[in-house]
């Protein structure tokens, strides 16, 4: 009997916590800030060009500015 009560209590707590997370996920969209795509390689390369093409399409689709930031160095660890 005690196991069922404990199980119900844990289920109720989990449901309550999950409901708070949905409020955080439903925050303002689109946001006031632009979306950033970080490319861990130098500008002008193939990866940079692909990221800029993706950013252009995302910007049209989401009606929000999308910025490509290049952060090269340290074997691309900085951009990771």
UniProtKB/TrEMBL annotation:
Q: Which UniProt keywords apply?
A: Receptor, Signal
Tell me the first and last residues of the signal peptide.
1-24
Answer whether the UniProt record assigns the keyword Signal to this protein: yes
The cross-references to InterPro entries, in alphabetical order and at most eight, read: BUG, Bug_dom1
Kinase: is it a keyword of this entry? no
The entry sums up its family as follows:
Belongs to the UPF0065 (bug) family.
What protein name applies here? Tripartite tricarboxylate transporter family receptor
Native species: Variovorax paradoxus
